[in-house]
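pls design
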């Protein structure tokens, strides 16, 4: 039997292993995260205590691939560190993208994280699909993101139609990118929908997507340094960019981070999944 925890950050949900004897295999991650076959999740992360207030975090997407950073997952990891007594009111999470600072949220079921801004400004990019260009902005916020500005309501954003193709487009790089459709209805509000690589579907929220959108909005002077981000899961997350003495910026993301409970996986949960059918 394998024990996991379940957490959710604004609808972005994850399975968690605490200090396992070994890391999960890609096949195990895929099986455990498969919705309808096991408990389902957008990804899985492993937490290990280094010392009081210092926790190492390793993250896998639902497809079994490693990811350097997932900010909603990191916020949930911070919430768990506080819940488990591994930290006081602040925790350092050692991630594949470097150290991230986590803090208790304003409410019990919330957490906040603070990360350095992108090393380079957003880069204009216009990938072509079927003879039509899709102008947007490419940047790396721990993981790569391609951000498109929507002129109208996000209700009609072609996330399912274009997300899989833009996510793998050669112009965004060999590793692919998360693809975000964003809109600023005013300077203090962001609306965002994200197709996430590794999940290979639209998710209810994406933390690195929100901060990437804030970076693009500031680059284009479309928003203020502090915004409320409204995501598909219905939650509102708070994001802020603060300049540093070195001329860069520190970004924070705060909001819903829920500890949902403990799960015990029976052997059937790791049974390999059948291939999808090929309809005639």
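designed seq:
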């Amino acid at each position: 039997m394998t024990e996991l925890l379940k957490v959710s950050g604004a609808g972005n949900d994850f399975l968690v292993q605490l200090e396992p004897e070994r890391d999960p295999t890609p096949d195990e991650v895929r099986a455990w995260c498969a919705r309808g076959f096991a408990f389902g999740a957008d990804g899985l992360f492993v937490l290990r205590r280094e010392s009081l207030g210092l926790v190492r975090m390793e993250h896998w997407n639902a497809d079994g691939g490693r990811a350097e950073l997932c900010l909603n997952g990191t916020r949930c990891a911070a919430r768990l560190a506080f819940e488990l007594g591994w930290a006081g009111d602040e925790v350092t999470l050692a991630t594949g993208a470097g150290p991230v600072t986590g803090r208790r949220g304003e409410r019990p079921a919330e957490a906040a994280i603070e990360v350095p801004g992108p090393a380079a400004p957003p880069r204009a990019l216009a990938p072509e699909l079927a003879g039509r260009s899709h102008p947007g902005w490419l940047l790396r916020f721990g993981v790569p993101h391609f951000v498109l500005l929507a002129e109208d309501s996000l209700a009609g954003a072609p996330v399912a139609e274009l997300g899989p193709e833009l996510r793998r487009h050669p112009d965004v790089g060999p590793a692919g990118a998360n693809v975000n459709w964003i809109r600023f209805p005013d300077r203090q509000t962001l609306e965002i929908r994200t197709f996430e690589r590794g999940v290979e579907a639209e998710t209810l929220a994406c933390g690195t997507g929100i901060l990437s959108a804030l970076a693009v909005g500031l680059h284009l002077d479309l928003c203020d340094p502090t915004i409320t981000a409204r995501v598909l899961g219905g939650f509102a997350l708070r994001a802020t960019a603060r300049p540093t003495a070195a001329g860069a910026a520190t970004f924070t993301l705060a909001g819903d981070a829920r500890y949902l409970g403990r799960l015990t996986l029976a052997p059937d949960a790791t049974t390999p999944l059948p291939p999808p059918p090929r309809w005639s």
